[in-house]
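1st attempt posting a full record on here, be nice pls
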Amino acid sequence: MTMLDPWADYYGAGYQLIQGFYAFGSGGLFGVGLGFSRQKYSYLPMAYNDFIFAVIGEELGYVGTLGTLVGFAIFAWAGFRIAKYAPDMTGQLIAAGCTSLIIFQMLVNICGVIGIMPLTGKPIPFVSYGGTTIMSCLMLVGLIVSVSRRSVLPETVYDDNRRSWQMTDDGGASLVGTPMPRSARRGQGDAAPPRGSFRVMDGGSSQGRERLSPSS
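the predicted structure (as tokens):
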């Protein structure tokens, strides 16, 4: 019940939450500067762990807190996109579940710090101090990456066109300043590329652009 009225017990149950509010208020829009927080020095309990979001709000301000949320939003988008293109239902459940675990843990911590949920002691993944939470979150990300490596993305028209590209030997290009008739640009054993395909020429210092001779 402390979140409903933390000032009812200022020096008791509500002390940590109120000090977090002071940190947010001191930060303002752009914060006091990275590393210049005052609340983390013996004022805000567990500033490096449970209440690291309040320190971010004081040092980086409103912009920094929004940036943190945007970073986790991008992570959620990538994780659920990997789940969407997973090769089977097992991969979908693994990717979606691991992504949800990290995002929900972040939301529980932030909602508790700003006073709209009870404090539970959950850290922010990859941000709060603690070796156990870092290792567990890295394991979850590893599972997501494992599903991503086996995901099958939908094929586009560009993929189909790219398969029609062909590499040609250096006989298809002439040195700069050396005229070459059109009939000599392709060897007798070379087959003409299929109609509508794209022919890729090798480049480098020993080759130049094709130039047509006057006779051709």
